[in-house]
């Protein structure tokens, strides 16, 4: 079936695509959406742990990005700018939902976890039982993360998934560097408790 | 003389009646369907080679000022020739055809009025028996739609659609 | 209980945020403190596990539909905004999320339709005076469409690419139509030139394709 983007996203730089989008070229913006939807969706999904909502929020992020394009001065990479929009959209949604962490568990957010876990698991040549254990571990990790409060889930995703440095996390959240470190430490300890049987070692 | 008047009148009346029967029957006054406005559609041939121009005398409407310059900015060619044009009512209830040429033409269907004096349309671009594109659009007064069509010779066929009045 | 700075040291080491001089000192501590080393190893393994199972990129479900919905949605928002400016009422009704909330498992028909390209047109900043393409669909394989408003030309463009070229020796001719009349009973439209002479009659075949009849007098 024909695709709505006619150019290979890798061939055209973001700068050119953004400039064309700012001039009203819808095909250029569609190419940007195609290029970054996987990463934006992953970020929204990891933060809220719900496929349907993550899909909606990823869409809203792109829509907001389009509306904000006239204000984008290209002083940062487009993806960085887009990511910030998506993060804020998702985090605002999360706070509004008032999801409780620290041991509390929201059942609604566990919908579709099985399907998402299957997609996230790297497919390879692992034996069936290994693959099964891997899928189960993935599900447990996602469950454990879903039990974190929004603030702690946020820093885990930004650090472990997006690989942001502390200063970048501090600027994005926003909070002090000390708070970033404290939250990361606390979040990891909480996850460690949940996954004790997996990661505990002996001296 | 007076006695002849009634038959004479009857004769005149009869003659008139006979004359009316022989003439073509008067059509019933047609009820013109409601319209949303009028569009002007044209098939344009764009080329950089003046020798390829056909030499038609068609001219775009006055409200489409700087016609050649505007087309050139979008499509990049030097010469533009109006091959055919069609001014057409947009019917409220029925589809309309805009046929400046049998080779490339439009079907339009009103979707009602739009703000700022515009008209919402469903339009289809046809090439002979094939639909090239279906589109939902809003046409506004003085704001032309340029549709880039297939290549021909060393140039391109372009369809221009303009809402002329509501 | 460890002071926060010790916890921060561990985290900073884990995340590669330590300066070189601090790194050497901390690694020396790890060698001397088996409890600290155990915790460091466990947290390292946990981080690696999180990274393995939380990928930075995921395949988005119904990807083409995702793209097309974005574009349709924005076109609708632009129309709503221009309408609000006309009426003076601020009436943005439902939230974005409730508007775009579609069933997650879109039907095959919706996906197929969306794949063939709904694109939207962004009007010029605050302008409600321009024509707009809200959506398009190109049934032909290999045909792609794009739309934008060209500010310099002050025109809305719908560009069709990938169309089969018209042979150079094909004679393309036009007509100059000044009015038309439709006879609804027989679904035929007659096109007339400026002098009132019929040019063409358009009808439809059984599947709705247009049929052209030339120079056929009416009646």
Describe this structure in words.
The complex is a heterotrimer of chains A (203), B (166) and C (219). In chain A, 68% of the residues lie in helices and 0% in strands. With 203 residues, chain A is mainly alpha-helical. Chain B is α+β, with helices and mostly antiparallel strands. Chain B is built from 2 helices and 8 strands. In chain B, the strands form 2 sheets. Chain B has a 4-stranded antiparallel β-sheet. In chain B, strands 3-4-5-6 form a 4-stranded antiparallel β-sheet, with no helix packed on it. In chain B, a hairpin with a 6-residue loop joins strand 3 (96-98) and strand 4. In chain B, 40% of the residues are buried. Chain C has a 4-stranded antiparallel β-sheet with strand order 5-6-7-8, with no helix packed on it. Chain C starts with a helix and ends in a 5-residue tail after the last strand. Chain C is an alpha+beta fold. Chain C has helices spanning 4-14, 20-32, 34-53, 63-87, 96-100, 108-115, and strands at residues 132-137, 144-150, 155-161, 176-177, 179-183, 188-192, 198-204, 210-214. At the A-C interface, helix 2, helix 3, helix 5, helix 6 and helix 7 of A face helix 1, helix 3, helix 4, helix 5 and strand 2 of C.
């Amino acid at each position: 079936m024909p695709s709505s983007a006619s150019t290979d996203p890798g061939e055209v730089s973001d700068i050119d695509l953004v400039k064309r989008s700012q001039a009203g070229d819808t095909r250029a913006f569609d190419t940007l959406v195609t290029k970054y939807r996987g990463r934006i969706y992953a970020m929204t999904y990891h933060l809220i742990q719900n496929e349907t909502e993550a899909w909606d929020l990823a869409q809203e992020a792109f829509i907001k990005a389009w509306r904000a394009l006239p204000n984008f001065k290209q002083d940062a990479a487009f993806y960085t700018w887009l990511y910030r929009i998506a993060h804020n959209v998702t985090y605002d949604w999360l706070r509004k939902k008032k999801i409780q962490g620290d041991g509390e568990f929201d059942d609604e957010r566990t919908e579709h976890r099985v399907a998402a876990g299957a997609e996230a698991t790297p497919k390879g040549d692992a034996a069936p039982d290994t693959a099964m254990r891997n899928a189960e571990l993935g599900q447990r990790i996602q469950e454990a993360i879903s039990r974190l409060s929004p603030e702690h889930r946020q820093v885990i995703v930004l650090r472990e998934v997006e690989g942001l440095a502390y200063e970048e996390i501090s600027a994005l959240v926003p909070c002090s560097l000390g708070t970033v470190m404290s939250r990361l430490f606390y979040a990891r300890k909480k996850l460690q408790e949940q996954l004790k049987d997996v990661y505990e070692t002996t001296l | 003389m007076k006695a002849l008047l009634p038959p004479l009148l009857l004769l005149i009346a009869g003659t008139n009646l006979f004359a009316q029967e022989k003439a073509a029957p008067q059509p019933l006054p047609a009820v013109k369907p409601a319209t949303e406005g009028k569009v002007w559609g044209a098939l344009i041939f764009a080329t950089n080679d003046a020798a390829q121009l056909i030499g038609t005398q068609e001219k775009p409407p006055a409200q489409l000022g700087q016609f050649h310059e505007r087309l050139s900015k979008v499509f990049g060619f030097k010469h533009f020739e109006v091959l055919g044009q069609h001014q057409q009512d947009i019917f409220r209830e029925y589809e309309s055809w805009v046929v400046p040429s049998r080779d490339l033409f439009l079907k339009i269907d009103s979707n009602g009025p739009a703000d700022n004096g515009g008209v919402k349309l469903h339009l289809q671009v046809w090439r002979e028996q094939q639909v090239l594109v279906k589109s939902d659009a809003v046409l506004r007064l003085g704001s032309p739609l340029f549709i880039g069509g297939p290549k021909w010779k060393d140039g391109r066929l372009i369809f221009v659609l303009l809402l002329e009045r509501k | 209980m460890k002071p926060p700075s010790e916890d921060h040291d561990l985290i900073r080491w884990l995340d590669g945020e330590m300066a070189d001089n601090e790194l050497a000192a901390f690694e020396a501590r790890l060698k001397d403190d088996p409890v600290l080393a155990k915790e460091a190893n466990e947290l390292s393994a946990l981080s690696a596990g999180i990274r393995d199972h939380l990928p930075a990129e995921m395949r988005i479900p119904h990807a083409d539909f995702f793209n097309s919905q974005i574009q349709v949605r924005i076109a609708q928002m632009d129309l709503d905004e221009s309408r609000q400016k006309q009426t003076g009422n601020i009436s943005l009704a439902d939230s974005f999320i409730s508007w775009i909330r579609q069933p997650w498992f879109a039907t095959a028909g919706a996906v197929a339709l969306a794949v063939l390209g709904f694109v939207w047109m962004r009007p010029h900043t605050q302008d409600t005076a321009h024509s707009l393409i809200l959506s398009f669909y190109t049934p032909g394989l290999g045909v792609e469409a794009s739309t934008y408003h060209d500010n310099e030309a002050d025109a809305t463009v719908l560009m069709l690419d990938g169309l089969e070229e018209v042979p150079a020796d094909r004679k393309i001719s036009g007509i100059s139509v000044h009015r038309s009349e439709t006879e609804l009973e027989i679904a035929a439209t007659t096109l007339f030139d400026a002098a009132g002479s019929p040019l063409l009659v358009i009808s439809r075949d059984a599947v709705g394709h247009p049929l052209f009849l030339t120079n056929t007098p009416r009646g």
